[in-house]
Amino acid sequence: MTATDLVMRPLGGARVLVAAGAPDDSASLTAVLRLNGFDAREAHSADAVISSVAEIRPSVLVTDLDLTDGDGCEFVSRVRRLPKAPAVVVVTGHTAGSIRRAALAAGAAAFLLKPADPIELALVVERLSGGRD
């Protein structure tokens, strides 16, 4: 499957929340998800994510571990403890195996390295969202 295949055959309209420490990262991840039919929205801090999860009820949260106002793995754990918590996909530049293990232990359902492959990201989000909200 290619990126063109995904754009030509959108995956689904599930709500996805995207959070990254760098606005450019957040914008590019959001754009990839929107191109593939997801209702992707952005939050730019850990606190904004927490309030957005309660407000918009996303199926999936795509997040970097380097948010400006939170410890990455503790943040993942905090999100997963919320009522009706979304599945969490970590997209990060941290390559250490210990970081990957810590993120998964904190509750992340998937761990992708930057730059995340757009096809892989879309397919992981589709799988975790169950298709549509």
UniProtKB/TrEMBL annotation:
| Protein's UniProt name | Response regulatory domain-containing protein
Q: Which UniProt keywords apply?
A: Phosphoprotein
Q: Which GO terms describe its biological process?
A: phosphorelay signal transduction system
- Which residues are recorded with the post-translational modification 4-aspartylphosphate? D64
Q: CDD domains annotated for this entry?
A: REC (cd00156)
Record domain Response regulatory: where: 15-129
Question: Per its UniProt record, what Pfam families does this chain match?
Answer: Response_reg
